Amino acid sequence: MIPSAIRATVRDYIRAHRILKAGPVVVAVSGGPDSTALLLLLADLADELGLVLHVAHFDHRTRPRQSAEDAEFVARLANRVGAPIRVGRAARPTKSEDQARRARYAFLRRAAGEVGATAIATGHTRDDQAETVLLHLARGSGLAGLAGMRPLREGIARPLLSIGRAETAAVCRAARVRPRSDPTNRALAYARNRVRHRVLPELAKINPRVHEAIARLAEAAASLGAEEERHVAEALARATRDDAIALAELSGGKLRDGALALAWTRATGRVLGARQRRALAELASTSDGSRAIDLPGGRAVREYGTLRIAVGAEPSSDAARPLEPGSAIAWNGWHLAVDSDGDETGAHVARVPDALVPALAVRPRRSGDRLNGPGGRKLQDVFTDAKIPVSERDRWPVITSADAVWWVPALTPPPPGERGSRLAVAVPARFRNVRWSAGVRQVASKEEAATTPPRRGSSN
Prior knowledge:
Rossmann fold; Chorismate Mutase Domain, subunit A; 3 domains; five-stranded antiparallel beta sheet; 14 helices; 21 strands
């Protein structure tokens, strides 16, 4: 039977912070004491709160001998509380805490989407909160770091922040359940474990209730930072364009730095330390050329005046594809047609001599590419002068004949010719309101954008 005082504490915390709504909830269960207690508590509260529980267990493949036993234990536990279970498995053994976390949360979010869950419940406790705050403090992450983990953020619910590990152990004992143990929780190679086993015990000699004291600090920091975070979030929303941040839309100083740090946390789930925040701010302080830096959880890529946060691998470009008369193809968002009856409104058009048509193809740029003809410019220089973002260069169509570069639509004038097949190249929607002129990217006015195709030196 669940201890009544612990049950009441968790129930009141859920209600006070509006953590869980009635309906499906995914419960992340590793099999350890905290997540086991979380499932037992939520199962006990399910009828009262209107919850429909779905258990999710993820195998990181870091402990081959124990993984199957962990999954079997969680399956029995799910059966005990009458909840369906989903089991995920990493494609390959995760090599770091960060990689493991990303893989786990990607699985949990997929599971939540499949069942229409209102939230994903995790077993983070008040002890975890204390460790998190101290780690953030040591790394100089600022007020946001002192706020630690929040009861509900980005769909992740943490009902057990109201209790500690002593209470989760008590729940398991009362239910006569022996949780699984993870030996890596004792390994001092991990910073969190050093805080857990060395720092906090020393602080407990000064204040035996140090975990509660740090939790109160986190609540106070969260309250102080709420208004500031609202302004920062609004600034970030104004500056966000699709998957990129327009740096010119962010005023400098604290607001800009806060917006970038918030964008990073939203994209990667990681809170940056002071040194990392300074590196990100420095990256965003100029719009010259392109540059990228690696930070915990991903990579920040600045391309002239925009900044993107890359968490996974960049999509690869299409391979070379032939362009045949009467055909139309899509290539990385561009549409190309040779002597097609399709609509050519707003497209860049060139005449292809009949002798070149059989070898006509579109492909990505290649190292060493030059424009055809004596003294032809390097394509690298063409892209740089036009200020094409690095992320777009491998996706830009290069028109070739017998593998010699014949034309780069929107960046170079179409080769002269009055007779031959018509090659029409339509610009992707993401560039519709952008002009490429004299090597400078300029956004057209709404009136111009409605009537003027984005091109440089092309003719229809």
